[in-house]
Amino acid sequence: MAPNVELEAWQVSGISRTYPTYRRSILISNESWLEGKHEDDEAEGLWRIKDKLYDLSDFAKRHPGGAFWIESTKGTDITEPFESHHIEEHAARMLSKFEVRPASKPRNYKFTLHEDGFYKVLKRRVRQKLHSLNYQPSRKTDLLHTGILFAVFLFSWAAAVLDSLVLSAFAGLSLCWLATSSHNYFHQRDNWRMYFFNLSLMNFNSWRVSHALSHHVYPNSLHDLEMSLFEPLLCFVPSKEYASKLHRVISILISPIVYTALCFVQLIQRLIISLCKRNVMYWHDLLAFVLPSFLFLSTNLSLGAVLARWLTIVAMCSFLFGFIGLTAAHHDPRIYHDGDATRPDRDWGLFQLDTIIDRGDIKWSDLLVLTHFGEHALHHMFPTLDHGVLKQLYPELQQTLSEFKCELREINHWGHIKGQNQQLLRTEVNPIAPGSNKIL
Fold it and tell me: Is pTM beyond 0.90 here?
């Protein structure tokens, strides 16, 4: 599809002026998503925040969060990531030092971040709360993460020595929980715990793009790389133009296979891109092989037996990770997906609420919150805060929800499992905008 061709109604995203360029690529990947943003965001090779352009080239190495966040977003609009990743005002006060000029064209995205809007009001309250926040739960998060790490190696070793499928399942669950709990850390400034995400064969830097910069900012939209990567196997966009009813029925049947292949496909895709286009592998990709190396050196098993056991554990991890991740918060017919009617108020924080139904059944357990993407709405809006402290922000959230006459929806996991399958089957858009009784 050429850029100058008039778009059909089903191709127009509800959150932007343009159809995402990356979705025209033969191979959709982190790289094609970033390349598409370079074209769509019109940041002129710089960094765009709202309607101004900044040159952060010299600042990248000094960025407290790590150079990756700055270097990987050059040439793109980083308005929403900048707002959500910097709760305190220090970063905003520094921006004027790097300002180059006003942007020549309007923003591609329709989100608003008005000072009297939902997100900025909530953010000011959260900023004030940070001064009295109890950070003790973060230590518990660290202890849980460490315990899960030990469980991975313990269950994997026992499964290999005893040749046990049951213990392999426990090892797979532990590896899945290690990946989901490490997700808590790769949203934050560079730290040693984020590297354990790579034991799953996936890579935290790749996920910083597909998850933190894409999915967290543009959930359930055509700009959400995490949705696009599953197409055409799983299609969550409610339009017959993207997937027929039969296609959608088949997708439900094959979804367990998709989950099981997830970790392997991510590694294979990065290898193919590295061999055919440019290197997108990192030195820390080698960490994926720490677990099989440990099993080979600590047992008397042959290399073939070790690899077979390790691949079984990774496959189980992959299935659980895909299953937990895709039934965590985002896919239900009552949740906004691109094509559905949008609310008149395009506040970015309200958009996050429209694309999320939280899991109310796991709030009692810090372990389940950490390993099942809990406190999801607050995590989307304030991703750099540790999962363990997010629950302290509910008074500020509830106060702001009340003022703006909106709500935080919650259901249990079984509700999400049913909702995800219903969403996969949905081909009709919701004509009623979130927070409204009017058909738009």
Answer: yes
